[in-house]
Design goal:
- With about 110 residues, the chain is α+β, with helices and mostly antiparallel strands.
- It is built from four helices and six strands, in the order E-E-H-E-E-E-E-H-H-H.
- The strands form two sheets. A four-stranded mixed sheet has the order 1-4-5-2. A two-stranded antiparallel sheet has the order 3-6.
- The N and C termini lie far apart (about 65 Å).
Length: about 110
């Protein structure tokens, strides 16, 4: 396995981009290997690392199909549905509570 080149923060050459930068351009890595990495030094911890991909080898993002859109809507609805009262909370239920605020704190609802 060959080692990838490492660049310092803001010093990567043109023609390379992170996944987020590719996505902003409407592209995806498309199965290519990591071309390089950028390291940002931090105090008291290891550096932040971002992997870079070649823009010229990137492929266009696949379009959203109706089936994917329906599956995504169903998954988001499941994240908003309270398992205790089975109602749509109107927001994503935090995993720390595991249920909507009304079910998690019933005594506060009675006082209001």
């Amino acid at each position: 396995m060959a080692a990838v080149p490492v660049y310092r923060w803001h010093l990567a050459p043109d023609g390379l981009a992170t996944r987020r930068q590719l996505r902003a351009l409407g592209l995806r890595p498309g199965g290519q290997d990591v071309a390089a990495q950028v390291e940002r030094p931090r105090r008291r911890r290891g550096p932040l690392v971002a992997y870079l991909y070649r823009i010229d080898a990137a492929k266009p993002v696949r379009p959203m199909t109706p089936a994917k859109r329906a599956a995504l809507a169903k998954a988001n609805a499941a994240r908003r549905t309270c398992p205790a009262c089975r109602r749509d909370a109107g927001y994503v239920i935090p995993p720390s509570l595991g249920m909507c605020a009304t079910c998690a704190f019933p005594e506060e609802q009675c006082a209001a």
